[in-house]
Amino acid sequence: MKRALVSASLLVLGSSLYAQTPPKTATADSVQVFWEKFRTAVVNGDKGTVVSLSGYPISMPYGIKDIRTKAQLLKNYRTIFFYEGNAAKCFPKAKPIVDPQNSKEFIIACSITGGIDEPLQYTFTRGRNGWRFTGFDNVNE
Q1: How many whole angstroms separate alpha carbon 41 and alpha carbon 35?
Q2: pLDDT exceeding 90 applies to what percent of the chain?
Q3: Are 112 and 85 in contact (CB under 8 A)?
Q4: Residue 113 in 3-state DSSP?
Q5: What percent of the chain clears pLDDT 70, i.e. is strictly above it?
């Protein structure tokens, strides 16, 4: 009888705590975990981790061929992350933008070096292997 009362009390206490602090959605948690890992890799220049967290093909801005292999990503790494903007400076402050209509995708927006708007967009997509970097674009071009 005592054990049943203690169990019931813990269940009520646990339920009230749960109601006060609802958990984040699995999608929000997975976005944040992935973003922390990807951001840290770019900021630290860890190209191997960036490559492993990327999905192919990676779409590129108009007039530039999509990246289809890890070797192509490594060859174009500087162009994607440092040519027009500086991802290592932008990423630490950037927050994932998730479209409520498409929870399988989020973007990170960055400015062109010296600019005030954020036309550089890094796209991330969730697939069967989790979140992956899948696109880069300059929406002003």
Answers
A1: 10
A2: 52
A3: yes
A4: coil
A5: 77
E strand segments, the chain: 54-59, 97-99, 102-110, 120-127, 130-138
Contact 139, 121 (CB under 8 A): yes
Q: In what order do the strands lie in the sheet with 102-110?
A: 54-59, 130-138, 120-127, 102-110, 97-99
Of 130, 135, 134, 136, the closest CA to residue 31 belongs to: 130
Residues 6+ apart with CB under 8 A from 49: 37, 38, 41
Per-residue pLDDT tens digits for 72-93: 999 999 989 987 788 999 999 9
Prediction pTM value: 0.76
* Token pair 């990327």: residue: 54
28 membership: H or E segment, kind and range: helix 26-43
